[in-house]
Design brief:
The complex is a heterodimer of chains A (about 325) and B (about 300).
Chain A lengths: L1 E8 L10 E8 L6 H12 L18 E4 L2 E4 L5 H4 L6 E6 L5 E3 L2 E2 L2 H9 L19 H4 L3 H4 L6 H5 L11 H12 L7 H8 L13 H5 L6 H14 L6 H16 L4 H9 L4 H17 L13 H14 L1
Helix pairs in contact in A: 3-7, 7-8, 7-10, 11-12, 11-14
Chain B lengths: L1 E5 L9 H13 L3 E3 L13 H5 L1 H18 L3 E3 L2 H16 L1 H9 L15 E2 H9 L1 H7 L3 E2 L3 E4 L23 H8 L3 E2 L18 H17 L4 E4 L2 H9 L1 H8 L7 E3 H9 L16 H6 L2 E2 L1
Parallel strand pairs in B: 1-2, 1-3, 3-4, 6-7, 6-8, 8-9
Antiparallel strand pairs in B: 5-10
Helix pairs in contact in B: 1-12, 3-4, 4-5, 6-7, 6-8, 9-11
The chains are: A alpha+beta (about 325), B alpha/beta (about 300).
Chain lengths: ~325, ~300
């Protein structure tokens, strides 16, 4: 099949180093992957095209790029599955949220710094055992998903928070942290929770699910971040807007069946947070003027006692 | 067609204009709304409750599905977030009969049982799939000639694609663009249309949240959009309510009205802007409406 590859190029050493698209027309097999195409372009058409790849089997994690705007491994993306409807085109760009070195090659330094920041090694306490540290299978099974991470950076590439905030630890590092928090051989969970609770930690995730969608290995980083939030709160770190928001949200649904938006906003910031309360005044005035305000009295839904009963029952089960 | 209407919290709270616009639009599109069937249904949990206790969220949503089943009508929502949370809950409930049975145990006291037939659908999907674009076009009295509209989906109606049934219904990926074109608008495509509006971290990290509002609204505006259309009231709240903050953060004017999907439909279906409370937005729609060129 005839395929038009639309590849984003950038060469910092060229005289006019501006990022631009270059088209390559290739005849590809129906079974070819995007990586097959890129390698053929480099070998047969244009030796100046730079890309990273190694195993070609979705194991090494080297070839994460953006295909049609969404991150994934070039080696396990079949061209036929991503061709545009109109002109048999596929667009390939470097992974996002990382500095581009050249063409499709990005600098992973910021990625590794974040991974390192969550101290991805076991930190046991107490006396060293005579033989190896043993971990029962049943305690390790829930980590099977996260240990599948191949550190390809697809989740980081498309993270909507990292796009606006380079301070965010990000989905890869946070999923990695979950892996060590959940390991029965690790004894530093309390210290890890403290870090995770800080700015740039678990609370900054927007729950947009981009990382879950683009991860080629089913790691589901966002789900791990959500699990960490719960553990952080259970460990006693409840003095954050995030924890207050989660608590008040649940409280509101439990008592009235639905959300009391006014109360949720005020309680998330903390009612004694004078600065935040003052900050809300302009929005309150704007909303009031536009008539965009929730009802003054928040009424319970009919049959709210059934919702409360479910809360009681299910919360006890937990 | 008749639907059990699930309005969600926000259309009964901070976005009353969404509720009224929906009611008006459905009258014209022959969508009969049963507003009673789900009056006692709870919030979906919006993903927040699910963070704390997934089973709790699934039980509450199973309860809502059981109520819809009891009414004998399919469930209609008007919120991307409700859609996503319900689709995900439904996927888990249907994947494991034992899990569903144990969830149902907690519903019996109320005389409810979820049999697994609910198929929660956003108004956007109902238009694209149940009614069809031809039907929509047959009802249009005002073609919104060339109005430049940027679509903004909201995360939960585009991800995760598996729970949302994108493979079975590929049209869902482009449904908003299809509606924009059907009403005579011109789609202003931009990469942010399926990204996060920032609402979920509004109280947690206001700076990041406002930056997201700024990025999306400015990008759409600079690509020539007259307005942005969204099927998600949470996205609306942030993109509209915090646009003044985004403008001052970036020290520039943005002035991009954020229109709810039913309000856009209503304009084309001949409903007055006042009836859809288009005058009740933070970013004024006055200029947009005065410059609107409509034709039969």
């Amino acid at each position: 099949m005839e395929v038009k590859f639309n590849v984003r190029r950038y060469d910092p050493e060229s005289t006019d180093a501006v990022s631009h698209f270059q088209e390559y027309q290739m005849d590809m097999d129906d079974s070819s992957t995007v990586l097959d195409g890129l390698i053929r372009i480099r070998e047969e058409v244009d030796g100046t095209l730079s890309l990273r790849c190694s195993c070609r089997s979705a194991i090494c994690g080297s070839c994460a790029v953006k295909v049609n705007g969404e991150a994934g491994l070039a080696c396990n993306t079949k061209i036929i599955d991503v061709l545009s409807e109109d002109g048999n085109t596929v667009t390939v760009e470097p992974a996002g949220n990382l500095p581009v070195i050249k063409d499709l090659v990005v600098d992973f330094q910021p990625f590794w710094e974040k991974i390192r920041a969550v101290e991805p090694w076991l930190q046991p306490e107490g006396e060293e055992p005579e033989t190896e540290y043993l971990a029962p299978d049943e305690d390790m099974l829930h980590l099977a998903g996260v240990v599948s991470c191949i550190l390809c950076g697809a989740c980081v590439s498309d993270c909507t928070v990292m796009e606006v905030d380079s301070n965010f630890l990000g989905p890869a590092a946070l999923a990695k942290s979950y892996r060590f928090v959940g390991d029965p051989r690790d004894d530093s969970a309390q210290q890890r929770f403290k870090t995770l609770n800080e700015d740039g930690g678990v609370w900054d995730c927007t729950r947009c699910m981009k990382c879950v969608e683009v991860c080629p290995k089913g790691v589901a980083p966002m789900d791990r971040i959500m699990a960490l939030r719960e553990q952080v709160m259970e460990a006693g770190y409840t003095n954050t807007n995030g924890a207050r928001h989660a608590f008040e949200f649940s409280n509101s649904v439990k008592h009235s069946g639905w959300l009391d938006e006014k109360k949720l906003v005020v309680k998330s910031f903390g009612i004694f947070n004078i600065k935040a309360m003052i900050g809300l005044i302009p929005l309150a005035i704007r909303s009031q003027r536009a008539g965009k305000v929730p009802p003054i009295f928040h009424k319970n839904i009919p049959g709210v006692e059934n919702v409360r009963r479910i809360f009681e029952k299910v919360e006890t089960k937990k | 067609m008749r639907y059990a209407f699930y309005p969600g919290c926000v259309s009964r709270g901070a976005c009353p204009e969404l509720y009224s616009a929906t009611i008006e639009v459905c009258k014209i599109l022959d969508i009969e709304l049963d507003e009673e069937a789900l009056k006692g249904a709870s919030c979906t949990g919006a993903g927040v409750l699910q963070e704390k206790n997934l089973r709790l969220g699934d039980t509450l949503n199973a309860r809502t599905f059981a109520m819809a089943e009891k009414s004998g009508n399919p469930l209609m929502t008007i919120c991307s977030t409700c859609q996503g949370v319900m689709s995900q809950a439904n996927e888990r409930l249907l994947a494991d009969p034992e899990y569903l049975a144990s969830i149902n145990e907690d519903l019996t006291e109320e005389g409810l049982e979820y049999k697994g037939t609910a198929d929660p659908k956003h108004l956007l999907w109902i238009i694209a799939e149940d009614l069809g674009m031809d039907f929509l076009e047959s009802k249009i009295v005002n073609k919104l000639n060339g109005l430049k509209l940027a679509p903004f989906y909201g995360c939960y109606i585009v991800r995760p694609t598996k729970a949302l049934g994108f493979a079975e219904n590929p049209g869902r990926k482009q449904a908003l663009e299809m509606v924009i074109e059907s009403v005579g608008g011109e789609v202003v495509d931009f990469p942010g249309k399926t990204l996060c509006c920032g609402f979920p971290i509004l109280t947690i990290n206001p700076k990041n949240s406002v930056n997201m509002v700024a990025n999306h609204t400015i990008d759409a505006k600079d690509r020539g959009a007259d307005a942005m259309v969204t099927p998600c009231p949470l996205c609306h709240l942030n993109l509209d309510g915090y646009q003044p903050n985004a403008a001052s953060a970036r020290k520039r004017e943005i002035d991009l009205p954020i229109i709810h999907l039913p309000q856009l439909l209503g304009l084309a279906l001949g409903i007055s802007p006042e009836a859809m409370r288009l005058n009740k937005h933070i970013v004024s729609t006055k200029k947009l409406l005065s410059e609107l060129v409509i034709s039969p």
